[in-house]
Structure formats: C-alpha cells, structure tokens
Amino acid sequence: MSAVSSITLAKPSPTGSLDALSLISRHLASDNAVIRCAAARALGALNDPRAASMLVDALMDEDPDVRDDAMMALRRCAAPEHAQTILESLLGDPVKDVKIAAIQVLAKLNAVIAIPVLRGLALDRMEDKIAWEDQAGMWDDWLEVQIAAIAALGKMQDRGAVEPILAATQDELGQELEDVAFAALAQIPETGTAALLGIVRHPSDKTRRFALNALLNAKLSVLGPMIDVLANDVSPQIRILSLRACSADHGCVEQLGQDSDPQVRFATLDRFGAQRPDLALAGLADTSEAVRALALSLVSEHPEPPKDLFSNAAAWLAGARSELAIACITAMAKLDAPRAAPVLIDISGKPEQQAELRIAAIAALSASSDPDVIQHMAAMVHNPDRQLRAAALKALARVIQRDDQLAPMAEDAIIAAINHISADNDVIPMAVQGGQGDLGATRVEGPTDPRIMITRDGDIVAENPDAESIVVKPDFPRSTLQHLQDQNAPGQGDTPKIPQGRRRVAIAGPDNFATDLRITAIGIAASIKSTGLAKAILECVDDPHPDVRTAVYRAGLQLVDHHILKQPQRRAFAKGLKDTQPQVRADALRMLLKTGDVDQGIIKLSADPDPIVRMICVQSYAVDQTCQLLDALHDSAEIVRRAALHRIMAIQSRFAMSKAIQIAFDMGETAGLGSVINAEQDARHLCLEILARPNTSSHDVLSILIAFGPR
Amino acid sequence: MSTPYYIPEESVPLPPPDADVISTACDYCVVACGYKVYRWPVRGGKVGGPKAEENAFGEDFPTYVLGPWIAPTQHNIVLHNGEPHHVIIIPDKDTEFVNPRGNSSIRGGAIAQKVYNPQTPTRDRLKSPMVRMFGVLMPVTWDFALDIAAEVGKHVLEKHGTNAYGVKTFSYGYMENTYAITKYALRNISTANFTFHDTPSDVSSTPGFRDAGFDNFGPSYEDWRDAETLLMCGTDPYESKTILYTDWIMQGIQNGQKAIFLLPRSTAGVAYAVKNGGMLIDIQPGTDLPVVLAIARVIVENGWEDAEWIQNWVNSKWESSSGFGQGTRNTPWQWRTTWGQFQTDGFEDWKEWLLAQDYAIPENAAEIAQIDVQKIYTAAEWMAKPREDGTRPKTSIMIEKGFYWSNNTGNTNAISSLGIICGCGGRPGQVIGRAGGHQRGGLRGGSYPRNKSPEKLPGRRRRAMDTDRYLMSGHTRLAHVIGTTWVQAMCGSQSLQAKFDELTTRNPHQVQSFDKADIIETLKRRADSGGMVVWDQDIYLVDPIGARYADIVFPASGWGEETFTRANGERRIRLYPKFYDAPGEVKPDWWIIAQLSKKMGFEGFDWKDSNEVLEEGSRHSRGSRKDFHMVKVAAHREGKTLHEKLGEFGTNGIQGPVLMLADGSLEETKRLHDVNRVLPKNGPAGATVFNKKLTHFNTQTGKCNLQKAPWDLFSSYWNWLKPREGEIWMTSGRINERWQSGYDDRRRPYIVQRWPENWIELHPNDAAKFGVESGDYVMLHSDRIPVQKDTIVGVEASDFDFDSLLKNGHIELTRAAITAVAIVTPAIKQGVGFMDFLHTNQPANALSGRVVDWISGNYNYKMGVGMVTRMGESPYKHQFRSMSFARRDIA
C-alpha cells in the first residue's frame, strides 16, 4: 500500500530546500478533508508565523473540521492583522468549536474590534448577526460560547464588559455563571474588582463565596481592608475563605480560631496551627472531634508537649469516633511508646474495632521497643483480615529498618510469614487476638441473643439495655441468612458468637489466606535490605503456586537494587525465564538484564507468546542487533513495535532508522513516526523528502502530516 | 457439603397508621414504576395491625385479591437518622400513570432487598474509600484518597494531555450525578477520552433515528397500547420492561392489537402475543435489515404506503437536497451526504432505490434471515394494508438493543423508513421509538470536545473517540471508572482484560508504601512508564475493574440514600427522595466528583446538596426531551427548591419537556413529534423553549427523512462472521429476573438460587449435534473473535469497510472461552445460542467482535459466533433446587 519502495537516508540540505511549511501547506488544497485537517494541524505545530495566512485561508474550507483545526492552529501563530478575518469566522461559521477557538485567538491578540461581539455573546446568541448550527434537542452551543466570551473579556481587561458580565449572571433563565463571570471580573482592573467587592456583600452565601474566591484567586490586595468584614460574615464558608487573605498574626485569626462553627475553627487551625502553637493548644479543648484531632496531631509534634497530653489522648480514645481516635493512637505512640503499647495492642487485636483504627494502631506500634509488641505484631501477621496482615507486616518491616535489638525478632516474623505452608495451603492459624471469620462477624442473632442497633456508619453495636425493648415478636425479623447459617455452620454449637459491639467488616480479600499472606510478606520483605529476608524469598523461587512465584520474581527486582545477592543467587532466578507464568518470565528477564547475568535464554524469549516479555527483549538489544530490532517492527503487538522503534532511535543507527521508517510505511502503521521525527532531524528530513515526491500515496502523506502534527 | 438453599421469609410487619410515606420510583428498568416507602422506627416495637384503623393502608387484613398485600421481600430494616427503621417498599396503588394498577416486576417487587442492611448479603457494600497498597485495598479517609487522585490526575493532565485522562461512566445514575460527572470530565478536564457504560464512544445509539428526525423516546406508554399493529424489534418487553408489557401492551393485545416480534427467540411475551393472533419473525442474528426492507417493499409494491403522511411529513427532493434535510449549514449529518450512501430525494427516489435491491425481495430476505417468507407478506399486510373502508391500521414500531446492536446504522436507517411509510410518528397509537433499557438520568454539564478526538474520517465530521481502542493502544494513562464494569460490558472482553492487566497489574510500578507521597510518586511513575492508574467509583467492589485493577476505590451511595431525579421511558420526571442513611463513609457520586474537582483546582463545584446540583444543571436540560427548566422557574417563583417542587408531583411526576404557559402554569408533553398538538399562538412564555420536536421532527425542515439502508455496508462483516463449520451464532439479552450485571440480584438469595450461573439456550437439533442436554456444563469458545487494532490511517471511505480492515491488517483474531449451563429448548432458533448478557464471571460479550460500526462508532454487541463443547454435567442437572430447564416461552 505504500508508495515508498526504497529509502536512502539523505543528509539534510544545508540550504534547507525541503521547507516543511511549503511541503505541508500544499496539502491544505487536497481534495480529501482528512488530509486537509492533518495539514492544518501540522502547520500549527510548526509554530511558524508564516503559516498564519495559509491557515486563515483554510477558515473558508467546506469541511467544518478543517476550519476547526485551522482556527485551533491559529492560536499558535495568528497575528493582529488576521483579527478581522477571525472575527468574521466567529460571526459566520456555525460550528461551535470554531467560534470558541476564534474567541480565544481574538483574546490572545487583544483584538479590540471583537469586543462588541464578545459583550453581546455574553448575553445572548445574537441570532441576527451570528450563524449557529441547528442541532435541535442536543447541546446548546451558545452556553460554551458565552463562557468563552466572558473569559475573553476578562483576559482583555475590558472595562466596559462589567455591566454585561453582571447582567449575564443575573439572568434567571441563564446558566449559572458566577464562577466564570467573577473570575473574569477579577481580571478587570478597578471596575471589575470594584464590582466584585460590592458582590462580596451580596445576600446570597453562594454568590459571596464565588466573588471572594475570584478575588482571592486573582491574588489582589484589595481585600486587605475587608478582612474584618469577611471574618464576621454570617456564612461559615466566607469566614473560612477570609483566612486566605490573613496572615498568621492578623487579629482575626484568634477570633476565627474560636468561631462558633467547627469547620471554621478547623480551617483556622489547619492554616495557622503550625505557626501558632497557642491555637493548637486551645484546639485541644475544642468540642469538635475533628478540631481536637488536628490539634492533637499538631501538639504531639511539639518538642515539649503538655505533660498530661498522653492521658488526655488515652481518655479521648475511649469514646472517640474514627478521626479523633486515629489521631489519639498516633499521638500516644509518639508521646510515650511504652505506655501506649498495651492500649494499641488491645485496639489492634479487637475484631469489633474499625479496620482503620486497628491499622493505625498496628502502624503506631512499630515505634515500640518492647519484645511483647513484636510478638503481638507477629501474631497479627496471621490475622484473617488481609488489610491487618499487610499493616502488621509493614510495621515489622519498619522495626527491621530501625536496626535495633528487636530487628531479628521482626525479621523472623516476616520470614515465618514467607515460609508459612500449612497442610492444605488454605488454612492459617488464628491469632490469639484475632476474632472469628466473616461468617461469625455477620451472623444474625437468634431470638435469645441480645438485640443490636446499627449506627449511621453501619456499625453494629449493642442496644442500650435501658431502652424499651424493640422486639416486635421473639422471632421477628427472621432472615434467610440466619437460617442458612444455622443450617450450614460447621459445629453449630461451637460457632463463636459475635462479641457485642462488633463493628465494620473490612474487605477480607481472597479465601486462600496462606498464599495471600506469603505474597504480601514477600512484597514487603523485598523493600528491606536484609540478607535473611532475601534468602527467605529466594527459597520460594520454585514454589508450586504461580502467584507466589510471581511475587518472588517481582521481589527479585527490588533485591537486585539492594545489591545483596551474590551471583549464584542471582543465577537462581534464571530458571524464571522458562516459567509458565508470563509475569515471572518478564521479571526474571528484567532482573537478569539489570544484573548483567544475561545468557542465551534471552534469544528464545524474543519469540515469547507474551508481548511484555518480547518488549523487554527488544529493549535489551545492543547496537549490533539491528536486524532483530527491525524484525521486531513487524511484531503483532504495538508495545513491541513501539519499543523497537525507541530502541532504534536510542542506538542512533542511521541505517536502522531509515529501514524502520520504510517498514512503518510498508506496514501502514505510522503511529510512532511522530516521536521519531521530533527527536531526529534525519528522520524529519526523510519524511519531508517523501512528502515532496509527487507519487507519494495519500495514506503516506497522511501519516507524515499526522507525525508533524501536535503531540 | 450441601448447597445452601433459599428459604422464604414467613412474616412481614404491617406499617402502622403513622408511618412516614415517601413517594419514589423503582430503580431498575426504563419503565420506572411508582413506589411508596412506608417507614417507621423499630424502637418501641410498634407495628400496624390487621384492622383498617390499625395500619397505614387503611385496609382490613386479610385483604382482597391484588389489594395492598406485602411480600416479605418488600420489607427491610434500615438506618434513618442513625436509628433503625422498618421500611416497606411497594408499588404505589394510588399512582395514575406508568403502573396505575399498582403492579410490579419481579425486580421492582423485591426492591426493598437492595437497601443496605449488614444482616443481609448487601453487607459487602463499599463503606469507605480505599487505596491499594502492597496489593491490598486498604480503607483510608476521603482526604487521603482524594489527595492522591487529585495529585496524580493533575500530573497526568499536565504531562500526558487531556486525552490521557479517561472517564468511563454510567449515563443514567440520576441527573444530579451525571451533571456533576460531565461537568468534571467534559467542561473541566475536557477530555475526548470519555464515554458511557454501554458504548466505546460518546455517540448516538440510534443513528438512523437521528437522521430520520425521530427522538428515541418520543412515544408515551399509552401509544404502545393504542396501536392496532405493533412491530417490536429486538426486544420482548415482558422480559426486560415487564410493566410496559403487562399493563400497556397486553391490554392492547387483548383489544385486538396485532403484535409482531422480530427476534431470534421466543419468550413469554412472544408466546402470549402469538396465542392471541400475533406473530414471531424468527430471524437469525444480524439479518433484520433485509427483512425490514422486504416488508417495506411489499408495502410499496402494493401501494399501501401512507401517501398523505408522506406528502405532508416527508422531505421532498428539494427539501432533502442540501444538508440531507438538515439544512444548508454544516451539521453532524453532512458526511453522510458526502458518502451518498443514505440520502434520498424523497419518497419516489427512495422507492426506486428499494425496488432495485435484490436483498429486499421477500424471498431473498427470507433466505438470508432463514424465515418463512409468508411472515414478511403478513407483516406488511398487518402494518399497512388499508381496510375496505379505506382507513389505515394504526401502526407503531418499537426497537431495542437486540435490533440496534446487531447492525447499528443499517437497521436503524431501515426501520425509520419502514416507520415513515406506515405513518408512524407523533399521533396516538402511531409512533416509533425505543422501548428503552435503563432509565433516563443523563444531564450534560459540558459538551464533548470533538475536536480533540483522533477519529477524523473522510467525508464526515470528526467522531467521538473510541475509548477502548485508545486504551488498547496504550494512550490512556488514567482511567476513572464510575459505576460500570467496563471490561465485561464491552465486546471482546477477554482481550480487553488482558490489556488492562498489562497496563496495571503487570506494570513494574506498584504501591509498596503507606505513605501518601510515596503512593503518589509510584502512581505517577506508572502513568509515565506507559502504564495506567485506575480509580473506580461504585457501590460494590466489582471484579476485575475494582477488585483487581483499581488503585483507588471511591464508595458511592445509590437509590434511597440521597435525593435524586430521573426520567423514565416516556420522559416522566420524578423525584427519588432519600429515605435512609447510606452505609459507612459512603457519599453520592456528585459529592465525590465535586471534592475531587476542587482538589484538582476546578471552580464551580461548591454545591451544598443535590438540589443545588440539579438547579445549576436545569438550564442545560432546555431543548432536550426532558426539559424541566421551567419547573425550576416555577419553583423559585413559589419560593421552593426544584427538588421540593418535583416532590409535589409524587409518583405521577411530570412529563417532559415541560412548558410554562402565559399564566405561569406548567404544561406537560404526552408525546414528542405530536403533529396534532396546538401550542399557544402567542409563542413561548418567558424563556420556555418551544422545541421543534414538540410538534415536528428533528430536521431542518421539521419533516422526516426517508433513508436508504444499504446491506452491503454491513454484509462484508456479517458474511465473514456468520457461523462456519461447528459454530453457531452467540447472542445475548436480558431476562426478567436479573437486572444489568446482577449487582443487586447476586445479593438476593432467591435469584442466586434461581440463576446461579450464566446459561445458554440451545436448539434441540444443535444440542444433539454437540451431544449436550439441559443441565450440562458447556464451554463456549472461539478463536476468531475479530478485534480492531491500533490507530488506523484511513483516507478513503472504503478503508473502513471490514474487508479492507481485514486485508490491511487492522483486524486481529483473538480467542475467548466462557462456560455456561445448557438449556435445550425449541424456543431458540436453530443455529443460535442465547445467553444472559452480563454475568460478570461468564460474560457473553467475550464472544462478540470488537469491531465498531464505522458509521456510528457503536459495537454490534449481539453479533458473536463460537463453538459449543460439552464439559460434563452441572450440579443442577438432576436436582430441582437451582435453575430451571422448563420452557420460558409459555403464555
């Protein structure tokens, strides 16, 4: 299909005889709209002011996409003398996208002649002057043109536009424009900002909010005198926004820190808490849990936190909701790790606690130097909830990274997790602290069980024993689930009852706990530089479970980076090149390439059924392997072809590059040409040469024009 | 170990007289029946009694037949304002429209089971945002998840451009949500890499309707009832829109309506119609077009066309001559003029073309479709033959996915023209439209940036991007997936899944840290390395898009958990109020999008509640089929919010487009294109839009366009695809008992027991050939699933014909296999296998070719082929607890 039968890469002409502008622009006259579109885009991408007049001519093309592409291209190269024609396009071209691009060009050119039209478009469709597409029942094109016009008036700082912009926002039947309109007004000096300052006193919260936002985003100093007014606004959101205009020492900050609205207090603390320890300390007494949580995290970072802070945090923890509870957990561990340990062990071990709290507690325990804590975390590694298992493993990893006397214990725990193979490979022992599985967790109480209550968060908690009984009938409501559980529960009498107050059931992950644990443990172990852990990972290299092997080889890539593997150990990974799992083969190959332990196995992998494996092979080819690289350009997978092309560019072989371009044209797959011609002058010149030939096929012309187009 | 089985509940409480009563509508199919929620606190143990004065219905129990009876599946316990409450959710017996008898489908009838209750199988609702760390989705705070999403999103936009940021979303999940999502994706991100749940590109589902000038949802439900002849193509409304069938069409059939089905399969609705004088035209997949044109040919050969209608309402030569009846201006339709394949110069020109087509000769069409040719003649007679007194039958045409997803452009062109010559359009009982699948909850917050799409084809306007092909080419670096399975819902699912694996799980950059900054850096590196990051927003964790690929999961709230608004299949707009607390930290989609957008630096997302979102969006409904802007104007004049005003309409809702009359009152629209409707002479009051389609059709002139429908634009694909030795057609559709991907159904013990797996209906002759009996497990497989590759450089129209694509190496043949349980039944046409369309574990779409209709950009989902291999007996073969192998096509 290609007209390019043979290519010889010629040196670029020193006189630049192959002028991209002229070669591309001639295709604006093609009888095919696809080619004209591509030519318009390519001309724009040249960033050459000489292209502008040609593109202006293309604004009269019969194809709307060509006109659209031409106008878009003009955004890069139009000059003031083109403003009149562009304005005519805005008026006469019915295509919305052309209009919007025209407005952007006119704004960029600061074309004063367009201002009356832009003001008009801010208010209505100007049907008497402007042509529109008739797309009944579809999107009303004017809505976006209106927004573009308002934005343009702002950009052009048109002082006369204030009135029409304000009128547009007040149209009861119009679209909501306050964000756009106020942003434009903020750019118009004096009249625009004055109008906005007036709107900041508007009765509508929402309008005031938009106005203030616009002024703040414009970073104008005009708000300075108004801070007191804003800080006393009836809307909490305005009061919050006023913080953006304040400095930490402004008189309003203290007032806002004691605001009646907790969101305002939170925002104040969030913005100034680090600079104003007094605010953080005051926040500890706040009635809002969110504010207290923030204050606690700030104060606990202080070099000399209050003495009773730990006790307070512990007390709050007992009754706090999620956000404050997590802050308490973190703070307690920071303030006094030994004292915190028993509490955190208790929380992390309780199935009825929220998953987020348990995870936070486990993470916080990694700061402890208590062997009992390590033992607890080692037990948590075997928790049935995979989220907790991962958290425990990561906490142990942190202990190892601390490299103190507990590191060997932590390492042993992770190694145990890696090595764990139970009899049926499905069952892992329950941790002492671990609760029952999901079945127990969600089991419905029988008639004799205490009644339960569901909180807003979906938590199941015990009903207040003092409250009036809610039981309609002793057996009501019965459920299918209950029946099924009763029928099928193994050892019915042994099924553990739900502890009262059992809370959210986390996503528990796959049923195969043991394998999942090993995979997670291998992944986390690989992030630590430890010969013991590396050895444990290496011992799994022949594991029969494909997912475990996949994890081992992915881990191997990290181990290589630690530089702790000796060559025989690295060699052990070579067997992965023959693995049945494509991911294993891919990672084995990556690893061997990293270490330089490459052998002949790689050659075989160039025909691997997995495209990622083939791609890695291609990326590894050396300068003298151009034949293989050129072969890879025929690969069925695009990622392989793309990799081959990039590799050819990287090795900078002019021969290979010319061949590669020839292959691309022969195959009709020229999607990668763009990156080549942008990076290589030779390739660029070659493509222009092809473009210059009279017999180049329309497909090849299109390919080249697309390649020259915007990226 | 025994298989668990379903035990029905035995009791249900009656609501007490003082129970809260909340009007809403069903969440499922397009019909959207009116429902009432009765809610009262659990605390105190109060329930209603059997005497009329003791219950909220005011009825003595036991009540009369079809009285306000409550099934145990219509009861649940939810949290409301933090307190446990009973809810009874039943069809509204008082509603005047949609389901005026208080009837419900099996889906809606059990809708109370969908609400979250941790004691039921809904317990696995997503409850908090999650971020994948160490391969595990970890619960995190909203800020933690949103900060990561925003930072990585901004990076992708900055470094890889807007089109690298893909957004794939539901189109119907309430107007408040779709407005927020499209405002984010189209107006702010401004990506062309955007589409909805059921299509690879943001394009019209029924191109032929659009070109003819028909709105998809012009008719009202009573029009379907009032037709004397009703042609239903590619759907049995009983299976998928039950109340539309039982409460409207069945009434018509009982009144003598001649119902014709164009389907490869008989079902209960078909059986009822046939028993009452109707007919099934049992075509083989993809052959609708020749049959439809053959019916048209018989009509015009006999001079049965509606000449008066054609004279008044069809574009003449002069009217069609510029812009294909769409006017002199450049329009999205212009390209079709250029290709010259579809445009006609009016009726005589179209007739001449039709009579010249060999495949439209009834005998030839019957041969292609493998049907009895007499059915073509009978259909033509029923649809158009005038009576002896010269009056014409009132004929209507309904189409749905089995039809328009078989030969998208060709079928919709052909049926439009058949409808036009039969006089279907805009009169009581004489209409043409879609039956509909899901409800209509779309509201645009921005227009599609067409100029960013790479899909410029010769002689036509640039078309929306094919997001699947863009992803397959490795250009998508961030995929924000909202309320869709994506992978299983698209064609060639298994090769699409392999690409997802390559871009996500197989990329070397996987999060191995709890630290936010580390996570952000890792995900950025993945995107930069040519991989892809995935945000999934849904109510349940879906495999694989959420469970396997998502880096961040945003938990969303749904029906009953927030106040929302939506329209149904006759444009009836209703409020769906919040009546219980969403689980955990769950938030509505609009809120999630707003927070993410604000963190990304976009303005205009400061909404306080869902009413504010809808009020902002209402302006964008103007001119659309569900224009409700004047409801907002009226509401504000009355000092109410839009939601408050909509709530006043209850289950009756208000039928759009809504006009405001000069006296400030609101006027509904029973049907679109209503040529008999008289609008106020003084013109629209205030800013009311008198859209052309209120009384005319969607064309420049307001008249319909007759279009050619050339079979050869599709036949190269059909001929290549049609079953070869050992293969049969593989097609799919909905069944009554399951909704969409079964996200609720798989959490209903009864439905799980009834349909534990996907299944395939096989004709007894095919089954004998494959050695298969009902209850056997079968593998359905193919090694020639065509998949369109990469970017195609096309200059001429012919470059995009399937034969050219194949010849030029743009089609790759892929392999796929799924399993199913065989149901051997003569209800299915020989040579065709029929499956449920979206079992996520056994997706029928895996066997459909991923080759778009090059004119429209849609997939032809219903077109697949494959082989059947018996694997052995399923556990259901010899027990009667799960599944059923009884015929479904019984009346």
Describe what you observe in this structure:
Chain A: This is HEAT repeat domain-containing protein. Chain A: It holds the Pfam family HEAT_PBS. Chain B: Keywords: Iron, Iron-sulfur, Metal-binding, Oxidoreductase. The complex is a heterodimer of chains A (711) and B (891). By secondary structure, chain A is an all-alpha fold. Among the domains of chain A are: 22-248, Leucine-rich Repeat Variant; 571-708, Alpha Horseshoe (Leucine-rich Repeat Variant), CATH 1.25.10. Chain A has 40 helices and two strands. A two-stranded antiparallel sheet of chain A has the order 1-2. The model of chain A is unreliable at 1-16 and 422-508 (pLDDT under 50). Chain B folds into five domains: 20-115, Immunoglobulin-like (Sandwich); 130-191 and 441-567 and 572-576, Rossmann fold (3-Layer(aba) Sandwich), CATH 3.40.50.740; 207-434, Dimethylsulfoxide Reductase, domain 2 (3-Layer(aba) Sandwich); 628-690, no CATH class; 712-873, Barwin-like endoglucanases, CATH 2.40.40. Helices cover 28% and strands 17% of the residues of chain B. In chain B, helix 1 runs parallel beside helix 19. The chains are: A mainly alpha (711), B alpha/beta (891). At the A-B interface, helix 2, helix 4, helix 6, helix 8 and helix 10 of A face strand 3, strand 6 and helix 23 of B.
Layout: helices, strands, pairs:
The complex is a heterodimer of chains A (711) and B (891).
Chain A: H1 20-25, H2 33-45, H3 51-58, H4 64-77, H5 83-92, H6 96-109, H7 115-121, H8 141-155, H9 162-169, H10 178-187, H11 191-199, H12 205-217, H13 227-231, H14 236-242, H15 251-257, H16 262-272, H17 277-283, H18 289-300, H19 309-319, H20 322-335, H21 337-349, H22 355-365, H23 371-380, H24 386-402, H25 407-419, H26 438-442, E1 452-454, E2 460-462, H27 480-488, H28 513-525, H29 531-538, H30 546-562, H31 567-572, H32 582-595, H33 601-605, H34 611-620, H35 626-632, H36 638-651, H37 654-667, H38 673-679, H39 681-692, H40 698-708
Antiparallel strand pairs in A: 1-2
Chain B: E1 20-25, E2 34-41, E3 75-80, E4 83-91, E5 130-133, E6 136-139, H1 142-160, E7 165-169, H2 175-189, E8 194-196, H3 207-212, H4 221-226, E9 229-233, H5 237-240, H6 242-254, E10 258-262, H7 268-275, E11 279-281, H8 288-301, H9 307-313, H10 317-320, H11 334-339, H12 347-355, H13 362-369, H14 373-384, E12 395-399, H15 401-404, H16 408-421, E13 432-434, H17 467-472, E14 478-482, H18 493-503, H19 516-528, E15 533-538, H20 545-549, E16 552-555, E17 564-567, E18 572-576, H21 589-600, H22 610-618, H23 629-637, H24 642-648, E19 654-655, E20 659-660, E21 666-667, H25 712-721, E22 727-733, H26 749-754, E23 759-762, H27 764-770, E24 776-788, H28 802-807, E25 811-824, E26 832-836, E27 864-873
Parallel strand pairs in B: 7-8, 7-14, 9-10, 9-12, 10-11, 12-13, 14-15, 15-16, 22-26, 23-25
Antiparallel strand pairs in B: 1-2, 2-4, 3-4, 5-6, 5-16, 17-18, 18-19, 20-21, 22-27, 23-26, 24-25, 24-27
Helix pairs in contact in B: 1-19, 1-21, 2-21, 2-22, 8-13, 8-14, 8-16, 23-24
